[in-house]
Amino acid sequence: MSPLFPLILLHITMAAAQLRPGHYSKTCPGAEFVVRDVMEKALIREPRSLASVMRFQFHDCFVNGCDASMLLDDTTTMLGEKLSLSNINSLRSYEVVDEAKEALEKVCPGVVSCADIIIMASRDAVALTGGPNWEVKLGRLDSLTASQEASDNIMPSPRADASLLIDLFGKFNLSVKDLVALSGSHSIGQGRCFSIMFRLYNQSGTGRPDPALEPKFREKLNKLCPLNVDQNVTGDLDATPFVFDNQYFKDLVAGRGFLNSDQTLFTFPRTRKFVKQFSINQSEFFEAFVEGMIKMGDLQLEQPGEIRRNCRVANSRSVNTV
């Protein structure tokens, strides 16, 4: 991790005062309904896409605040975040956000930011798969640029342990409880064999599998991800990958966490108590998850912004910039 990492984070603030529910109530009153409609269609077309879109909020807000920088395509003068180590071959379903933006531009051109679409769509992905629904604060602007280096320096790898994750979340004023609750985003979706090969065959350089893996689950993963596998093959992140529930935490307690960064939450003392708590009480998990998502959505960097016409490119002539 880059030594510049702490300096970058110092400039990210909790900007809740600038954001509010109902921000588009006068300028685009149907905005949230439009995004929800697009997400409902995405669920029917490809259920896995909702998990992908939900995680956009994490990958966007942790890198220079919630500004839709992760949606920008590379240009001749800018290396964006889509090809960063944590995003390449991992993030997908950008087209769902494109569809939401196109639909909004038809009814409210130049009004709703791509950054706010990410926040709304992430909430909808959770609600539409059985999780909690909540009121989102809106009013963000879209960044004018993006940085692959910033994403590489900040986003954790699947090999991360709980101690590293606690430090990372703490720099964003997110607590240990927030960390565990937000890790519950892995209640839906899939992960790649690439992310777990070391757990199966060479944990910590031992040449052996991760001892935290429950034996029958390890056998299942060995069949899914043999040594000669195409490492883009995917496996379920928990036993109910299309339902947002607390099964993820039950799996961690049983030694069936897919990623190292998941299972370490149960093996590490400071996070274990919350894993146990959420595995027993789904309502408590839902409440903590919503609180964490709202806090993460407040992360902002003081920088110029705009309302992009196309989420993949900055406006050639900036409009609504500050």
Topology:
Layout lengths: L4 H6 L1 E3 L16 H15 L2 H7 L1 H6 L32 H14 L6 H15 L19 H7 L7 H10 L4 H8 L6 E3 L4 H5 L13 H10 L9 E3 L10 H7 L6 H8 L1 H12 L1 H16 L1 E3 L21
Your description of this structure?
This protein is mainly α and about 325 residues long. About 45% of the residues lie in helices and about 5% in strands. It contains 15 helices and four strands. It has a two-stranded antiparallel sheet with strand order 1-4. α2 packs across α6 and α9 packs across α15. It is globular and about 55 Å long. The N terminus and C terminus are likely disordered.
Structural class: mainly alpha
**Major sheet: size, sense and barrel closure?**
2 strands, antiparallel
The arrangement of helices and strands along the chain is HEHHHHHHHHEHHEHHHHE
Q: Over all CA atoms, what is the radius of gyration?
A: 19 Å
Secondary structure: helix percent: 40-55%
- Strand % is under 5%
> Strand arrangement, largest sheet?
1-4
> Which of globular, elongated, flat, extended, rod-shaped describes the shape?
globular
Cα end-to-end separation: 32 Å
Instruction: Give average pLDDT, whole number.
Output: 91
Uncertain ranges: 1-11, 318-322
Total number of beta strands: 4
Counting DSSP H or I runs of 4 or more residues, the number of helices is 15
